[in-house]
Amino acid sequence: MISPPIFVTQPDLPDLEEFIISLKKIWNSKWLTNNGEFHQEFEKELAEYLGVKYVSLFANGTLALVSALQVLRISGEVITTPYSFVATTHALWWNGITPVFVDIEPETCNIDYKKIEAAITPKTTAILPVHVYGNPCEVSEIEKIADIYGLKVIYDAAHAFGVKIDNNSISNYGDLSILSFHATKSFNTIEGGAIISHDEKTKKRIDYLKNFGFADEVTVVAPGINAKMNELQAAYGLLQLKKFEDKIEKRKKISEFYRELLKGTKGIRYMKDIENVKHNYAYFPIFVDDNYPLNRDELYFKLQEHNIYGRRYFYPLISEFPAYRGLPSARTSNLMKAKEVSHQVICLPIYPDLDLKDVERICRIIKS
Ligand SMILES: *Cc1c(COP(=O)(O)O)cnc(C)c1O
Question: Measured from the CB, is residue 90 less than 6 Å from ligand 1?
């Protein structure tokens, strides 16, 4: 008998009865979008929960990224990683910016800060790293480089909701950080996102830009876009926030169980928790090397035969897609580690309601 399908993730929804109460409030007020009551409260509570100064809510993470580059007037070339979701690089493209890919560090899958300096040219204006799987980048080292060369740093923190280093939010590093609240992320508002900023002036500029550039009724300060989060999503997000810590605890248990069961399996590597980091356990990637009897794709499809649908995050590399593969920095010899890891990775299912029995079954298949 074949078990029901298990996907890499399953979105977590708020309590429906509670959400209906919020919906009734919205129906009564008839305030649906444009900085309504729920929107204001959600921004405030998120800032408090995350331990950051300012949150600006967005309709999704991609528009937050595209807008963040506008906020800081980034142009020319930006140094980034090929090992991410395509939106990271697409945001540069939408701003007419040339992406410059730098290789990754396989232990964390993040951009290798030691290779950033060599990629800087007179046209470089910023660095756009990603906290891949919620693993913090080498933020201090990246800051040093940025300071020396006068570059801005925007972190794609789409995977890193709630992650802390030494009890300090990961989103307090860099000039700006962006978050995604897409249904597949550890914290979701169906679709949604945010920019984290550190001073009031910048927060204001972000908020103008996500609302067509309007500073007041008659003043348009820049060609902004429409990227506002609506009241339904904000109300939904407020309910999600209340139970997020419990969800992290559940994910942590699953992650620990995977590690316990997979420990010592020849040819299977998994990530270790980094000391001084509060993780969010958003993903559970494994890396299949030559010591395993099957190659990555063989294991990936073998799992599918058992109705288990992991994902090859991130394969192919962004630098391999037609829009980017012609760039000088996209050549394979520049991105050897990223290439290797992209051919080894499978993200195994992880979500708060995943049954530990299913984790056991998945590991049994991998080990058999
Ligand atoms: C999900 C994701 C995005 C895009 O966020 P959306 O909310 O889906 O637009 C950007 N970067 C990374 C690394 C992501 O995983």
Answer: no
Among 1.10.443.10, 3.90.1150.10, 3.40.50.360, 3.40.50.1100, name the CATH number for the domain at 244-367.
3.90.1150.10
- Mean of the per-residue pLDDT values for the chain? 97
Global pTM value: 0.98
* Distance between CA atoms of residues 68 and 55, nearest Å: 12
Atom of ligand 1 minimally distant from the CA of 182: 7
Task: Establish whether domains 16-242 and 244-367 are of one fold.
Answer: no
User: Where are the chain's structural domains?
Assistant: 16-242, 244-367
Q: How confident is the model at residue 1 (pLDDT cuts 50, 70, 90)?
A: low
Q: What angle do CA 340, 344, 347 make, to 5 degrees?
A: 130
- β-pairing, 277-278 with 214-216? unpaired
Which of 9, 89, 111, 180 to mutate to test ligand 1, by most ligand atoms within 8 A of the CB atom?
A: 180
Phi and psi angles of residue 28, each rounded to the nearest 5 degrees, phi first: -70, -45
Model confidence over 130-184: pLDDT tens digits?
999 999 999 999 999 999 999 999 999 999 999 999 999 999 999 999 999 999 9
Domain 16-242 is in which class?
A: alpha beta
> What is the per-residue pLDDT across 65-112, written as a single tens digit (0 to 9) for each?
999 999 999 999 999 999 999 999 999 999 999 999 999 999 999 999
* CA dist., res. 282 & res. 179, Å (int): 13
CA of 191 to the centre of ligand 1 (A): 10
Residue 52 tokens, joined? 């950051």
Q: Is the CB of 193 under 6 A from ligand 1?
A: yes
Distance CA 22, CA 239 (A): 9
Which amino acid does the sequence have at 38? Answer: F
Q: pLDDT tens, 253-274?
A: 999 999 999 999 999 999 989 9
Q: pLDDT exceeding 90 applies to what percent of the chain?
A: 98
Q: Relative to the CA of 62, which ligand 1 atom is closest? A: 9
Atom of ligand 1 nearest to the CA of 185: 1
Q: To 5 degrees, how large is the angle CA 87–CA 88–CA 89?
A: 90
Distances (CA, A) of 170 to 155, 164, 357: 9, 5, 33
